[in-house]
Amino acid sequence: MAMFEANDPEAGDKMRKMFGPSHADQQIRQAIHSCWMMLPEDKQTIDELEKQLRRIVERAIKDFREDAQAFGLQ
Predict the structure, then answer these.
(1) pLDDT for the residue numbered 68
(2) I need a labelling partner for 7 at 20 to 30 A (CA). Which of 13, 23, 41, 43 fits?
(3) pTM tops 0.85, yes or no
(4) Do 17 and 2 touch, CB atoms closer than 8 A?
(5) Do 48 and 61 meet the contact criterion of CB atoms below 8 Å apart?
(6) Any alpha helices (H) in 11-45, and if so which ranges?
(7) Distance between CA atoms of 61 and 57, rounded to whole angstroms?
(8) What is the C-alpha separation between 62 and 40, in angstroms, rounded?
């Protein structure tokens, strides 16, 4: 596992390069796959998958905003 020194002024750039867009893409695809597997068989449709994914993402973004405000990150 890569380690980034807290006092390294380039740590953020190094981390972004390491993870990059492909890392986010892989994580999102895994979430889609997991959500599909968790749906009951009779609800395994693309429309239901999209509905549930959007619900989960919207809730996560809402929580992120609330946390950012609560901890003074905004």
Answers:
(1) 95
(2) 23
(3) no
(4) no
(5) no
(6) 11-38
(7) 6
(8) 26
